[in-house]
Amino acid sequence: MRLHSLELSAFGPFANKETVDFDLLGAEGLFLLHGDTGAGKTTLLDAVAFALFGAVPGARADAKRLRCDYADPDTHTEVTLELTVQHHRLRITRSPEYERPKRRGGGTTKQNAKASLVWVGASPSGHRSEGVTRIDEVARTVERLLGMTKDQFFQVVLLPQGEFAKFLRSSTGEREDLLEKLFGTQHFERVEQWFKEQRRERRQALDNARAGSRELVARFAQAAGIEPPDEPDPAWVDGIMTTAEEADALAAAVAAQASARRERAEEALAEGRELASRVLRAQRAINGLNELAHQTTARAAWAEELAAAERAVPVVEAANALMGLERRADAADDVVKALADKATALGFADADAGLPRLREAAGGLREEAGGLAALVAEAEQQRVDRKRLVALGEQAEDVRARSAEVGARLAQMPARLTRAREDLTNATTARAMLDGLRKRRAELAAALADKANLPKAESALRMAEDVGRAAVDAHQAARDEVLRLRQARLDGMAAELAAGLVPGDPCPVCGGDEHPAPAFAVADRPTATDERAAQTVEQKALREREIAVSRVEKARTAVTTLVDRLAVWGDRDLAAAHAESEDAFESANGLASRFVGFERTVREAERAHDALRDESAKLEREIARLTTEAAELAQLVQTRSDKIERGRGDHPTVADRRHHLLATAAAVDALVEAHTTARTARERVREQGDALADTVSGAGFADFAEAHTSARPETVVAKLRERLAEAKEAEQQHRATLADPDLFGIDENEDVDLTPRIEAAREAREVAEDAVAAARAAASRVEQVGALGYRLRTAWQRLAPKEAEFAELDALTDVVNGRGQNSTKMSLRSYVLAARLEEVASAASLRLRRMSQGRYSFVHSEQAGRFGTRGGLGLDVLDDYSGQTRPAKTLSGGESFIASLALALGLADVVAAESGGGALLDTLFVDEGFGSLDAGTLDEVMGILDDLRDGGRVVGVVSHVDELRQRVPTKLNVVKARTGSTLRLTV
């Protein structure tokens, strides 16, 4: 992966659009992003990460606040990154989700996140040539091309501020999580989980099988009627089954003997009961015949009474019919009288007339009522029209009132339209002036801030100049001390060389073996150590001098910049001008914000004016229509009124008169019908009287009184028949019983005692039932014990291989998960991660030894942690000075930085190799941490970073350390301004 360019707008502290040319920066392979703390150096790396993955590294990802607070509301937050991955050049553009001010009215609205990926040149195989625009699809494409996730990218390509050192100090669990994300060893965890799930399932199945066998043992013991032993076995089962079979055979023999005895007792009891029954039948038949012989006279009287009652039945029926006809005739006469009274009450004077006269009168009344039917309809319409006439008058008054109201409102509309149009014109003018007023306010606010910052900048310049002069003096004094010590060493060099002479060894000056007159050292002679210490002080003073001079130049530049900005304003009162511009802007902004409302008010007023004008014309037309319709209807009502008055006569309405005529005609018709019905009823009474006399004579009675005396109610007749039939049937049954051959030779006076036989049969039955129950229980026990014994032996046979299989799986699962016979106590996943960590430690040690001048190297530890923490992921540091291994947390700040950097680079090498090669390391960023290094260590670190450029790699260093500006030739300065940050590219 190689970056080419980065464009960001309203992102982080950068309020405007900024561009970074990585091709220009990375021409030398190493470049520096330099700037003060908080200027936005790390934001550039965040922009790269956001463009690729839609997220930023570290804790800043939790804030989810990427838009610049100082950006203009119309400036869109966007990041565009152009890069080459796997020989394919592409351009990625992303925008985050953020809240922006609404373009109309107050408040904010949500700007949705967007993303697009466009191929610069030919698209790769399997990808659409037009690119992708879905956020999730862009993320998947980037991860597929890079061959790593965002977590891997942040760990091996973009080493974020304060994050890459976390791996060095992390605990075993945290290190395990990170390594698992980087190396993708989740499938090993799935293997561990698979073994656990298999063991859990097999254990559950084994427990179920064990529980099933235990349940079978309990049921087997319960069926045998004994308590189960602690350790049941097949021999115990066979013994119980044999015992049950023997008990079953014995119980069956006892039951057979008892059953035979019961059968003999029951046969004797049945014979006794049969004899007693025949004796009882003979006694009942003889007693019944004797009782019937005493009822002979009574039965003759019953027969005579029944014959007379049967002959009187038709006479009674004829008499009842005659009385019914007489009652109906009397009722018909009463109806005639009532209807005649009703007709008279309705005003009919001829109610006593004959039937022809009544029929003629009814026809005349109906004809008169028919002539009034049409006039009834006209009377009803007359009532409706009068109500309509009143309603028309009320409607006309309402419409006139509404017309007057609309006219009054219409008269007010011209003034309302004029005011609304004036407000809209003022708002339009304010909108046109708003941009100019905003810029003027911003310029005056910036000038006020510059004016306020100028005294501080001048004071800072004076302080920097004082510090600079002191630093120059201190450096000059340190340099003079170095020169003095060097000259003193030169002056005493003979004595220094003489101090190292050894008798017999050659002189380093003349080469002679004899040293007859060596020089002697003077007191307080400076040594090489003194000179080196003085040189160190001088170098430190030189760095402080350079820093002080740089600060003076920076402070002077700041003062000059502020003075140049304020020069354009002259002696003008900036506070008053700013207040005036603020008031003007607020006033214009207030009017401009109401533009839409004023525009809507004008449209509404115009629509209201047109609507009122249309409504007024409509109401005038409605008044004319109602007036015309009311006049026409009044003329029609007056014409119809005279005809109706003549038609109603003495009645309130025409309908009432017609109803009275129809009611009278109906009453006369009913009276005619009643006269006819009464005449017919009297004729039938006479005919039924003659029929009654003939029926009495035909039944053999002298007169109706004799027939009436002989008559009996139906219940009495039925009772007489029933008594006679029962007596005859009883006599026949008793005689048939005595003629039965079964009763020949039976003495009806014989006494049969059944008590001894009943007691013997009961005792034999109880014994037999108990024996049969015992036999059934024994047979059931044999059946249950046999079935359960077979199932139990089968369950034991099936359980044995499951026990062996689970024991093997249990032991293997413990080994895979770092327990049991696993001597290292490391799980499969931890073992794989430990191997990866060992590779990382080996790769990181090569760089750490160089950075620490051969002092430190990493040591991979498999030792378990405290409180039973699993081992395999320990990482210590070997100190060659002491020969001891110690925890990485004991390193100093600078040592921790170089150790973390070496570890991060080693981790990057291993992950890159694991991901498919070094192409992923074409670009590498290291963010901060260099300020904790001394000069020598910084040289070694920069040498390592310089070596990373081999093969065309580009390394970006992010730091605010000024010394790096002299060490790295290509740099990007990030300058912090008042309302954001600006980029200045320096090559």
TrEMBL record:
Keywords: Coiled coil, Exonuclease, Hydrolase, Nuclease. Belongs to the SMC family. SbcC subfamily. Residues 595-636, 717-778 form a coiled coil. InterPro entries: P-loop_NTPase, Rad50/SbcC_AAA. This is Nuclease SbcCD subunit C. One of its GO terms (biological process) is double-strand break repair. It comes from Actinokineospora auranticolor. Residues 5-204 form the Rad50/SbcC-type AAA domain.
